[in-house]
Amino acid sequence: MSAPYRVFLQLPRSGVSPRQVARAGDVWRLMQELAVGASTAVGYPAERFVNEGVAFIVTGMTLRHLRELPYGAPLVGETWLSRVRRGTLCERELRLSASGLPVAEATQSWVHVRMDAEGPRPARASPAVQAAFAAQPELGETPVQLPQLDVALDGPVFAFDFEVWHGWMDALGHVNHPVYVDWCDEGTRRVLAAAGHDPQALVPVAEQLRFRNAALATDALVVRSRCVGRCGGAVSIAHTIQRRSDGLVMAEATTVRTLPDGPDALLAALEGGQKR
Q1: What is the reported pLDDT for 272?
Q2: Is the Cβ–Cβ distance between 62 and 106 less than 8 Å?
Q3: Whole-angstrom distance, CA of residue 94 vs CA of residue 63
Q4: The CATH number of domain 151-271 is 3.10.129.10
Q5: Above pLDDT 90, what percent of the chain?
């Protein structure tokens, strides 16, 4: 009988906010460690991909936070591939629990690429890779989805600019995908701070990112965000991350956020953003 890959994980101290809980981006990093561990378990550690000149790259991910994750809680991760298409595209389900309670669930979309001088290019995986990364749909193949909007809104755009650091480059020479979550939340936190609220009070509910182009060192980027609605006790925020010089879209995202005492102050701050 099929079983998911299962492993014990630990939230690093660097992933803890002043409220002593994990930030959204660091939950994404835990999911990344879970996926890498599953790859290693089927015979494909990172160095084997490097030696064979291929890789799997995340093209999108949807994650729901079922509760906040405190530092020190014993963590268990489970993951499996739910779909594989044409030997190139696959979807991975990931689950985190702490002390027997579910913490987060996610669906990742991946593309298999071959690395060449011009950069990664989608390519059909070898028979060995396809055999190692076989789908297990019997474990569950319903993808994780964002909460539905109760009320649609069209808030003003707020934005901030920055330059990508050389020190942010990952093993593939581009910005690692959880960092994009950090950028989106940084924009929201800046709006909270400007409105006189604690920027560390932001509580993650869910997020979805679709990656379009790789952000590289020294790229000058702008994150443009706006409130697009309410869903339950949270606010939905749409983000576009673009290269400032030519408007090239690096990623599009939706984050669903609230505050410990409810979304009203967050919504008011977002509705006071200034257009750019």
Answers
A1: 83
A2: yes
A3: 9
A4: yes
A5: 93
Mean pLDDT for the chain overall? 95
pLDDT at position 32 is 97
CA-closest candidate to residue 256, choices 108, 147, 152:
147
Residue identified by tokens 């994404």 is 28
Predicted local distance difference test score (pLDDT) of residue 274: 43
Domain segments of the chain: what residues?
5-139, 151-271
1 pLDDT more than 80:
no
Q: CATH code for 5-139?
A: 3.10.129.10
**151-271: same fold as 5-139?**
yes
